[in-house]
């Protein structure tokens, strides 16, 4: 489903509940519109295989070289960036993060790749939230709408 298609939906509480239940029954995963959309979008963009069941705690996808990927997504306004990013518990196994930032229309704005071994630098003492600026310092920008070279 393209970003232009998904942005045309007008969602009601009943539709969200029905969708959540259907997705849970089909995939074993709970519905989080942005998170689920980001997983599908990044898997398509970066040639990764989505893990459909929840029996892969700690990672959402497997890349073409067999590495386990934890995908995190945040929405941002047109002129503002979110200041925090979310973490994954230390005990979960994966090789790297992909942090994806979308605008309010589900258009991809940026994707950052951060190695798992940098987690403690961004999320000190196992914190659930980290500083986005610190993440950018220890990560590689894979895509930016403002920079066509990425």
From TrEMBL:
Entry-linked InterPro entries: DUF6998
Pfam families: DUF6998
Location of the DUF6998 domain: 32-121
Lineage: superkingdom: Bacteria
Protein name as annotated: DUF6998 domain-containing protein
């Amino acid at each position: 489903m393209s970003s232009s298609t998904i942005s045309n939906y007008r969602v009601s509480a009943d539709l969200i509940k029905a969708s959540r239940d259907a997705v849970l029954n089909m995939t074993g995963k709970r519905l989080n519109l942005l998170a689920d959309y980001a997983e599908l979008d990044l898997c398509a963009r970066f040639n990764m295989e989505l893990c459909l069941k929840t029996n892969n705690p700690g990672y959402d996808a497997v890349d073409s070289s067999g590495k386990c990927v934890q995908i995190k997504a945040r929405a941002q306004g047109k002129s503002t960036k979110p200041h925090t990013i979310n973490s994954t518990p230390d005990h979960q196994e994966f090789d790297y993060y992909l942090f994806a930032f979308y605008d309010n229309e589900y258009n991809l704005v940026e994707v950052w790749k951060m190695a798992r071994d940098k987690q403690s630098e961004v999320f000190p003492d196992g914190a659930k939230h980290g500083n986005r600026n610190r993440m950018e310092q220890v990560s590689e920008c894979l895509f930016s709408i403002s920079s066509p070279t990425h």
